[in-house]
Amino acid sequence: MKKLLFIGVLLLGIAIAGLWLVKAYFFSQGPVVVLQIEPGQNISQISKTLKKEGIIRSELLFKLILRLTVSPKDIKAGTFDLRKNMPDLTVINCLKSSHCSHYEKITILEGWRSEEIAEALAERNITNGQAFLDIVRQKQLEGYLYPSTYLFSQDTPPQKVVDEFLNQYKKNIEPLFQEFPTDLTEKQVLTIASIVEREAVHHEERPKIAAVYLNRFRINKKLEADPTVQYALGFSLKENRYWKKGLTLNDLKIEHPYNTYQNIGLPPGPICNPSAASVKGVLNPETDFEALYFVADSGGYHVFSRTYEEHLAHIKRIRGR
Prior knowledge:
Blueprint: H1 2-26, E1 32-37, H2 43-52, H3 59-69, E2 78-83, H4 88-96, E3 103-107, H5 114-123, H6 129-138, E4 149-153, H7 158-172, H8 174-179, H9 186-199, H10 206-218, H11 226-233, H12 249-252, H13 276-283, E5 293-296, E6 302-305, H14 308-319
Antiparallel strand pairs: 1-2, 3-4, 5-6
């Protein structure tokens, strides 16, 4: 009796171990695999790719289950987030629906100009960068492309990408105009905010920098903002970047609508896409702040001055000349 009991327990243990091994082999899912299914690929080609990537164990079994459950026509082209050693039915459900679609995560930095955004989108295969840029320029949307982190499918139509930026602008920027009423137009606010965005290094200085440019604008004094010249110069081949750092006296003399060293008033429009903090800084600037000048110190903070003489003295002290 004891011998039979022992044999029974042993067989049960073997059966459990066998089931565990089967489960581990067939159902334990591994790391994520980003898989591209091209338009026109047939089931054999798809099965071969899935097997090669370790997503399925058997091409034959996968094709059999596929034909018993859905039509091959239900399998969609696209980019999918799958896992190694997924159950075949889960793979099939992923390939016929959108719940496993792959999304590219992209962060649009505060202060990027539209060209930088277009390049970042194109690099991640999110959309056609030039087509995106054409829409932005045609509709004059510089300044309205809200900087944030987004999830996009690859090969998203450019207008759909633009619409998502504008939706986030409506959610995050438009309420500020209700909270802080102003006599400025929306475009004027965004234009000054875009300059503030490129000037400010430390968050708490935005209302002060905004106040300086508002003061100059309201007394019809040239803004003399370096970022507007950088925007006018465009891409610097020498520095291999936008926003040329080493501005020269000749740069400040270029004839361009955005050169605020040569033209009185605001440039024709925003020079980048500002953050909500910079927009708020313009709508709610530092109160009773009469400064007209500022210069950056070695830590990125700014020293503000009411007069040009004070400004020159601060430059001499900071730069040692």
